Amino acid sequence: MVFGWPASSVGQPVRDYLLTLCVTAAVTYLLTGPVRKFAIAVGAMPAIRARDVHREPTPRLGGIAMFGGLCAGLIVADHLFNLKGVFELSNEPRALLSGAALIWLIGVLDDKFEIDALIKLGGQMIAAAVMVIQGLTILWLPIPGVGTVALTQWQGTLLTVALVVITINAVNFVDGL
């Protein structure tokens, strides 16, 4: 038995996903305090803007903790029996990591130096394009009531880039309030 489950259990892949999720969340949480102290030390605490909800300057650079959690989760997944094949048979984890690294770099620079919105958008699109070039593309789209729709490479590329950029900006919007 491993973590309370029989080693040959049908639910083992789910257990591996849950373990990876828990490690990712735990490492992100544990890095938040040290990253906060680092942000204060380097002065990554912009002045309060009119649209901000908080009343005092808030340390930035939280993306460092998120990226650290992602890296930890990928390292754990690479050592789990049911997920190891993904790293051996696919370039997608490396594509995700390299795109995330570019997004992380843009985020750190923005948190410290307040980069222009168009430059950030361009960087986000480049990061998404790097993921697509390395093989991380949505090629199947499940639509409720219709079924699964196959996308062309061009459609998949546009959808992937759009979803990556929209997700980044949704997180940034919520984080920036």
TrEMBL record:
GO terms for biological process: cell wall macromolecule biosynthetic process; cell wall organization; lipopolysaccharide biosynthetic process. Keywords: Cell membrane, Magnesium, Membrane, Metal-binding, Transferase, Transmembrane, Transmembrane helix. The chain crosses the membrane at residues 17-40, 61-81, 93-109, 121-142, 154-174. The keyword GTP-binding does not apply. One of its GO terms (cellular component) is plasma membrane. It is found in: Cell membrane. Its main location: membrane. One of its GO terms (molecular function) is metal ion binding. It is a multi-pass membrane protein. The keyword GTP-binding does not apply. It holds the Pfam family Glycos_transf_4. Its cofactor is Mg(2+). Mg(2+) binds at residue 172. PANTHER family: PHOSPHO-N-ACETYLMURAMOYL-PENTAPEPTIDE-TRANSFERASE, UNDECAPRENYL-PHOSPHATE ALPHA-N-ACETYLGLUCOSAMINYL 1-PHOSPHATE TRANSFERASE. This is Undecaprenyl/decaprenyl-phosphate alpha-N-acetylglucosaminyl 1-phosphate transferase.
